[in-house]
Design a protein that fits this description.
Elements: H1 6-23, E1 28-33, E2 41-48, H2 50-56, H3 62-70, E3 77-84, E4 89-94, E5 102-105, H4 110-125
Antiparallel strand pairs: 1-2, 2-3, 3-4, 4-5
């Protein structure tokens, strides 16, 4: 399997970014690396504006998840892709709808992996899915 490096992450992001843009809740992306040389991607993170997210997805239960005390201080709504290099898979962790974490097998091909990850995020966010 090819390494899940910066090039892999850029291909995954290229597949996922249109989904997050279509959600129109201010998602911004970050890459987190497992090493200082940035040769191994540890995670990808998209963060949404909480107020826009709650307005766009009132059925997500996001406000109720945080409760009246915490909600005013929430700075972002997180959509994570954690890369498990040893097992060749990733774990998706999302906020809203009280969903369990999801696991997807990876192939080391950023375009192929990105399409499957984007399709999963599209289904969660009710965005027309890209072709897998």
């Amino acid at each position: 399997m090819a390494p899940m490096d910066r090039h892999w992450a850029e291909a995954v992001a290229a597949a996922c970014n249109p989904i997050f843009e279509a959600a129109d809740v201010g998602f911004e992306r970050q890459l987190l690396y497992a090493d200082e040389e940035h040769t191994q991607v540890d995670a990808l993170l998209w963060e949404a504006d909480p107020r826009r997210f709650a307005h766009r997805y009132p059925d997500s239960g996001i406000v109720e998840t945080y409760g009246d005390q915490q909600w005013p201080d929430v700075r972002c709504i997180d959509y994570w892709v954690y890369v498990d290099h040893a097992n060749g898979r990733c774990r998706l962790s999302v906020e809203g709808w009280n969903l369990p974490e999801l696991y997807l097998d990876l192939h080391g091909n950023g375009g192929r992996d990105g399409a499957h990850i984007a399709d999963t995020f599209a289904r969660i966010l009710a965005i027309p899915s890209p072709r897998v």
